[in-house]
Design brief:
Layout: H1 2-6, H2 8-29, H3 37-55, H4 59-69, H5 76-96, H6 116-132, H7 136-143, H8 150-174, H9 184-211, H10 230-239, H11 244-261, H12 269-281, H13 308-326, H14 337-357, H15 361-370, H16 374-392
């Protein structure tokens, strides 16, 4: 019981923060005109923030450690999330669209054209991850840990979204509008597509375990020695890093719930909406943004209200803060002028890349691959390659970042 007594104040804060999310969700659900998507999005965001923070589900961190330190086992959290999500998506798709070989696509799924702008956007996003120290979802949950360098990165992403709106029409008219929308079930059906994803996932997972050079004491992260008292439960839930498989399974399950109840997971729609609404209100945008509102993915709106995706982000950040404080990981990390500059530049690339690719590592890479979209697979491969290039060039070490 000593450990619980020592952590009473942080645990109280964490409990209060999580309880506050539930209360706000309840308030949002009341009233005849209440939008049912808002409270659900808030709760889904909270669950996602909890899983990301506890499992350290940071795409850049995972890729960097794999390339630099040969800590490849942790990448299985991404592999597991894709595999679990694919199982749920296959079941839901078979209900929404029994025949996948026609012209239609499942409603709202993040299945987008495979185009040159997709590759360019993914590569820019990957380099932006290296320069800024995380992807957009990584910055959002790490800001809950006190990582203040996330602030210039997120501000830079707003600028990047704005730049993306100015380049959108050219890229759309010359490339995206004529590019194919490739979806695995059209060729292999749901069973065949799921089998392909699961077989590839098992093979990749096995290779990641084989190549892993992590110290022995980290290979069992998140696995408790025993659960004989309250302190052991506290350590398992709030202190020890969750295992890659457990984290990935939880994230994949959250992705299924998100698609079933609201929309596929994504964290950039509200941010790009802020940028688009600001520019639109000042008459700075092109008169027409061709096709963007008809595209699948994390598409920006023109509104001053907090969107469902905005409520997801609020839940995401607050829950990650609660977990960081409760587990004793919250520590304010003050940025320097140099690494703030690289975070800002990296953020611009993150914003432009995610606008051009219609999403980020959550919206395209995760939700897209779970939906059997070739665009998601392409984004994953290109982002991983870009991070490899960026780390080889040591862009993440500029100005002591």
């Amino acid at each position: 019981m000593t450990i619980i007594t020592a952590k009473k104040a942080p645990l109280t804060f964490a409990a209060a923060a999580l309880s506050g999310i539930v209360v706000v969700a309840f308030v949002l659900s009341r009233g005849a005109t209440a939008d049912p998507g808002r409270p659900v999005s808030l709760l889904i965001g909270a669950a996602l923030g909890l899983a990301f923070e506890r499992g350290r589900f940071c795409f850049f961190c995972l890729f960097r450690e794999a390339f630099e330190e040969r800590k490849t086992r942790q990448l299985n959290s991404i592999v597991t999330a894709i595999a679990v999500g694919a199982i749920g998506y296959a079941l839901m798709f078979s209900l929404y669209l029994p025949n996948p070989k026609g012209e239609g696509l499942p409603p709202a799924a993040h299945i987008s054209p495979v185009s040159v702008p997709l590759v360019l956007g993914a590569f820019a996003f990957g380099i932006g991850m290296v320069l800024s120290g995380a992807c957009i979802s990584g910055h959002l949950y790490r800001i809950g840990q006190g990582y203040l360098r996330a602030i210039p990165a997120l501000l830079g992403s707003l600028v990047g979204f704005g730049l993306g709106f100015f380049t959108w029409n050219t890229l759309y008219l010359e490339q995206v509008s004529e590019s194919p929308v490739w979806w695995l079930p059209r060729w292999f059906g749901y069973s065949g597509s799921l089998l392909i994803v699961l077989v590839v996932a098992v093979m990749v997972a096995a290779l990641l375990v084989k190549w892993d050079r992590s110290p022995d004491d980290t290979s069992q992260a998140g696995v408790p020695r025993r659960l004989s008292n309250v302190g052991d439960v506290y350590e398992l839930l709030l202190v020890r890093r969750w295992s890659p498989v457990a984290t990935g399974a939880i994230v994949g399950g959250i992705g299924i719930a998100a698609y079933l109840r609201t929309t596929p997971l994504g964290v950039t729609s509200q941010l790009s909406t802020l940028s688009r609404s600001y520019l639109d209100g000042r008459g700075a945008l092109p008169e027409v943004l061709h096709g963007i509102d008809m595209m699948r993915g994390c598409v920006a709106l023109v509104t001053t209200a907090v969107t469902n995706n905005g409520w997801l982000i609020i839940g995401f950040v607050v829950a990650s803060l609660a977990m960081a404080v409760g587990g004793g990981r919250f520590a304010v990390q003050k940025p320097t002028v140099g690494n703030s500059a690289t975070a800002l530049v990296g953020g611009v690339l993150l914003g432009w890349g995610s606008l051009t690719a219609l999403g980020c590592t959550v919206g395209v890479l995760l939700s897209g691959t779970q939906a059997f979209a070739v665009s998601g697979i392409v984004f994953l491969v290109v982002v991983a390659f870009a991070v490899w290039v960026g780390t080889k060039l040591r862009l993440h070490r500029l100005f002591g970042a």
